[in-house]
Amino acid sequence: MKRESLSEHEPKINIMRSNEAPPDVKENPFYDSEFWGRAKSPEEVYLPDSDEGISFAMAAHEIGHLVEEGAHNDASLDNFEATKKEEQRAWDKGWPYLEKYLSEYFGDNTVEQDKVPVIYSKIKDLMMQATELSQGMYVDDNSLEKVDEDQQEALLVKRRNEFFVTHGEEIKNIFDQIKDQRTGKKTDWEKYVKVVSSAIKDILIDNQKMSDTAIEPIPIGRGEQIQNENQLAEIKKVEEKALLLYKRIVAVEKEKRQKLEQELKTDKADYELVYLFQKDITELEKLENDLDDVLIELSNKQFTSFNRLVELEERIMQKGY
Ligand SMILES: [Zn+2]
Fold this sequence. Notes:
2 domains
């Protein structure tokens, strides 16, 4: 079924102040309403109503979690690497969306506006340091799966409290450095909510576009020589692999294009630009090779009709770049 488009339904965006956080959050010894934030969904966003620079830096990060492109959904307390990647991704993805609206908030006050990217960048580094330090709080990879759901929460609270005793001071030291980024100017909450909401709206539109470029699976049963359910499942699996790879290629292409546009505005020399994009090109080539392999794998399956393969390739190509 097709998802309703954003134009038909205004997205519900609800931004709350961090000091309105649920009680279980406030019990966390690391919770501090001055910079704590969370964005589980557009309807449930908590952001700090504190010093302007800190509020904007944290908004850039939290809304980054709402960007669906490349999200790491396996981030949890038993998977440190995935959590770290997701934190870094949120920092990188959210900023461009928020940056566009800074002038709407600051108006002619370019002096204050210019402080924001600097503070964002410092807080990003500090927060990633804190994430790195928090590795000690994580349990062995995926070991939580073996624990009963109702015991998981208790285990996490226990580990967090133990960690607070052993590493609390180091983390607090980082948090103090975050607080050092204060500009001395309090956030204009109403205006802030307005511009952050605009940024979130843009994210939701892009998320929608991403899901629209997803390729519909080909209906089974038009002239294919499918003999049993297992064959059908196998074909579907390989096709899904192809579609996933293609989606990733589109995402990398888009990222590469955005980065290039950004870099072209700087005064980097051509050879520097080439060097910068070599890495992306390598990743892209690898993905394209993988896609070719999967398509070959599919064509080698004797029970896949030639028509079906052609149709899949056409669907992939038609989406265009
Ligand atoms: Zn985060």
